[in-house]
TrEMBL record:
InterPro entries: Ankyrin_rpt-contain_sf. It comes from Rickenella mellea. This is Ankyrin. The lineage of its organism: Eukaryota, Fungi, Dikarya, Basidiomycota, Agaricomycotina. It comes from the Eukaryota.
Amino acid sequence: MMSTNYRIILTSLPVELLYEIQLFSLSESLPCVNKRSHEIFKLATSAFRAQFLIACFENVTNKRSRARGVMTKALRYPLCTIEVMETMFKSPLCPPLDATPELPRRLFKALSSKGQSEWSYRDAPLPFLRHLYNCDRIRPPNPNSHDGYALTMAVYADFIPLIRFLLDNGASPACHNRLAVKVAIRKKDLGITRMLIESEWYDNNGRRGRDYTRPQQDDRIQVTPGLLKIAVQAGAIDIGLYFMEKGVAPDIDTLRLNLPNIIAKRPTGVAQGTQKR
């Protein structure tokens, strides 16, 4: 830990020298030494930030980590904004950009449910993601990074525009043993459950689409008896009936969960959009 005198001496140095020290040390604590230090690095130029991110990658010695590429490393830092990225690309020091970047957890871990109607395509992290996937300087990031963490968190937050964006860019609900689907089931959200399973079910609004229940060749995942069991355990009657109408047969454990009584209590039109026309 830095002594008080050391902190005072360090932050009294010229700004340019502080930047040089930071590029040499790659310290995560230097910008947080005191208020002045925080302000100095907060006002750092995009050129300095780009140089810092490149230096952080060059400091990586693990072969596996280096194989993930500079963008995977850079994207983990909140200072990696669109402007900083573009500055990186123009730098002669920028390493090759031929690796497929991973989507960092930091973009999604703070998502919290605030109601489906309150989310829009302007909400973070969608603008940043659109730039990443449309950028011709790098490969499209892997949407299934960290076992599909992005899609699972989007489902948890009821972030329909983000769910659709990720699915359109190759996110798979099969990741992590179908965790995103299980989250949707436990939230008792038939619309999101269908969105995850049926590749053509939702329209531009993300809520309505083709009206079918039987297994389709273009379904993203196969519905299993295990998912039906989770629906019954969660009391998600409409989702359970939807799975059964797709041809999923309950196993013996599910039958013991009072499934017959659930079916008998089925109200008319309980699973909106799951009835054949």
